[in-house]
Amino acid sequence: MPDEEVLEEGVLNPIKTEIQDPLLQAILEENGTSLTAPTELEQPAPVPNPTEEVDCVVIGTGAGGAPLLARLAMAGLKVVALEAGPRRNPITDYATDEKAQSFLFWNDERLSAGKNPVAFGNNNSGTGVGGSTLHYTAYTPRAQDDDLHLHRDFGVGVDWPFGIDELEPYYTELEQFLGISGPTPYPWSGPRSKGYPLAPLPLNGAALLMQQACAQLGIQTSPAANAALSARYYQAGIGWREACTNRGFCQAGCNVGAKASMDVTFLPLAEAHGAEIRADAFVTEIERDEKGRITAVVYEQHGQTVRQRCRHLFLCAGAVETPRLLLLNELALTSGQVGKHFMAHPGMQVWGTFSEDMRPYKGIPGGLISEDTHRPKDADFVGGYLLQSIGVMPVTFASQMARGRKLWGQQLRDYMRNYNHVSGINILGDCLPHESNFLELADEKDARGLPKPRLHFTAQENEQRMNAHSEKLMRDIWTAAGATDLWSFERYAHVIGTARMGLSGDDAVVNPDGRAFDVPNLYICDNSVFPSALSVNPALTIMALSLRTADKFLAAQARLDGNN
């Protein structure tokens, strides 16, 4: 999906919700109601007992934190999750409106630097109980084995410390639990123990057009795997979830529960087994004893400073906030890799105008995929990319037009009259780690008085060659489909790396099980630990790592108990 403009700096836990729509303001005033008062879900939580020590604290409730939270709770551990954002009710709080849903994004300012500064806001992270999965577009292809072995195959980059066989059982478990809609068989995958549990979602206009054009050019395509239900689905431990209504507003939040965001899947499962989730809890400090073990986490919640003691900490705050917390607290810094080798997926897009009525807001946004370009035979670059059709909402598209084509005023309005006739294709490609791409703490402070994160990103020669290769191919596809007014937009999606895992504490922050090399009771589990970016969307792999990390932790604890 395209990324919107970076929103102005705000505070994730505002004291007052501002209503921008004058019509909505008038309706509320006429009915004597207001959205400025806290809802039942936003009421201040009781202050926990400061002397109580829990088994595990999990920071973050997105794709990295939620699955392991459920796993740990189901194992009988006393676990608490801290989420910086609020808890929302999708049925009552989610509007089918882009601008109204900006509260789903991490809107505190992050500073971008380098020759290709990365956009934030809705591009890379979210806030609220469920994290970024509240606004992700539910694209869930699996990584392939060679995605984990760029150095083995090309002599550059860094290999993962294990192969795809370590992730395959978790991929299968997730696909069955979440109710992934996709084709069986899937053309580009290796052996699978099970096919997708649901049939693919319907293809939207852009997907159908791309399918026809790729067939003309000899490019194989397939309906994509999506974590949105193509039929009503019974989810173990949760109950029935309703099917996708194909509104196309996945990035603005799903108000029917069809999209497998963590707030309707793993988090209710975790709470059913005794986990406690504390919303509006912004972590600022991580305390340690004289031996270097973590003893407590300090967070701000509703104007109060709260301290929670714990035996183990799982840091799952994403590839910006995870290294930021580590740097702020001078934690796990021995390897020198915290904040280093930041990666962002090349996401080159090509758009065209068609005579057909395309209605790009309808249907699942990423409906069609091709992995024929996973390792292109004519490539002059390392790795590869996938192709996918794009669905796009109107405000998102208009903001991109302003940036990508420098259209404004009447020119922009004139182009937007063709909105229902535009369609796009984009890539999701691998990115090599590079020393010039990194995160640091800036001197500039945020609204809480903490240093803002500054991320440096410059597309290197490999990414530039991949963009050129993919742009030519996508232009060929849309030309075959009869497009006019073709234009391209270079962008970079997702935030990856910054606390990578490896076999040695000399060049990695965590070991293959996610445990920090120099802090024995700290685990990190999110896309910050990826040694390489992968040539697929990261959500499914983050969840798989989350379950794997939980299982490795539980096995280690069982061994310790057995030796006592």
From TrEMBL:
Residues 125-346 form the Glucose-methanol-choline oxidoreductase N-terminal domain. Keywords: FAD, Flavoprotein, Oxidoreductase. Pfam families: GMC_oxred_C (PF05199), GMC_oxred_N (PF00732). It comes from the Bacteria. Residues 433-545 form the Glucose-methanol-choline oxidoreductase C-terminal domain. Belongs to the GMC oxidoreductase family. PANTHER family: LONG-CHAIN-ALCOHOL OXIDASE (PTHR46056). This is GMC family oxidoreductase. It comes from Hymenobacter tibetensis.
